[in-house]
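Board notes (copied after class):
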Amino acid sequence: MISFNFGAKIHNYSYFCARFVKILMMKAFIARYPLSIAIILLVTFLSFFKPPHTEMDKVPGIDKLVHTAMYFVMAGLLWWEFFRGQRKTHAPMWHAWIGAFLCPLLYGGIVELLQEYCTEHRGGEWLDFGANSLGVIIAALVAKFLLPQLMKKFLHP
């Protein structure tokens, strides 16, 4: 008796289609947020490499200022790229609040935990997490009150 396993072919076809759609969505995401992705990778690298000792280490509070600046730039670019692409995608604002506010906050916390428990040369600190959060909050305030006007002025004359 001859039997055909059509279910396996249909399953493989649906799996292929689902993977193809995911790849297309990832390409679209990368195309919409190229600078943000680059900054996220840079922040990740800077968070885990062993920095050399310099004269700047002696400046009080420089570490916290660097944390605030890194997360301000990261979240600020996420906001900017969201607003820049919003005219094409018509994404609701809550997407930006999740992607440019909540995700960087969680990311900062996860990085500090990983530094504390998974590295020998770095340590997680609550004050570093606070500085990361401050950068994200400042970026959100800039995005809420200044960025829409700047986008209209310079990108949509």
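Comment from the instructor: The first helix runs from residue 6 to 32. The chain has a mean pLDDT of 84.
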